[in-house]
Amino acid sequence: MTPLRWVWLALAIWGAVHPMYWFVTYMQETGTGLSGLIDAWYVNASTTGLTWDLTIAAVTLTVWVLAESIGRRHWRGLVAIPATFCIGVSCGLPLYLLLRRAG
């Protein structure tokens, strides 16, 4: 594996673990579960703006993954879509770049 692919792998793992740690910590502290976490994303204009920023980035990444995966018939890259929406762009983007470099 090339050094760049190791970087993509490390970023995908970091992008999965680090945000999830904070999400789980918040849900445990508040006892509100996933619905409380989602409500917190819209608690003020700042968090709402960040939520929309990440949502637009996730949709953009999804369109790119679909376009390239269908055009190149590189179906493995589609794994980045559920990773993006279930974990976050911080995992989905480096994961896609890792899978894309895999040929």
Q: What would you say this structure looks like, in words?
A:
With about 100 residues, this protein is mainly α. It has helices at about 5-30, 35-40, 45-70, 80-85, 90-100. The longest helix is centred in the N-terminal third of the chain and has 28 residues, at about 5-30. The radius of gyration is 15 Å and the shape is globular. The two termini are about 10 Å apart. The relative contact order is 0.17.
Which stretches are poorly predicted, pLDDT < 50 over at least 5 residues? Answer: none
What number is the mean pLDDT? 95
Strand content: under 5%
Structural class: mainly alpha
Envelope shape:
globular
Pick out its properties.
103 residues, mainly alpha, globular, single chain
How would you sum up this structure in a few lines?
The protein has 103 residues and is an all-alpha fold. Helix content is 82%, strand content 0%.
Set down the secondary structure blueprint.
Elements: H1 3-30, H2 33-40, H3 45-72, H4 80-86, H5 89-101
Helix pairs in contact: 1-2, 1-5, 3-4, 3-5, 4-5
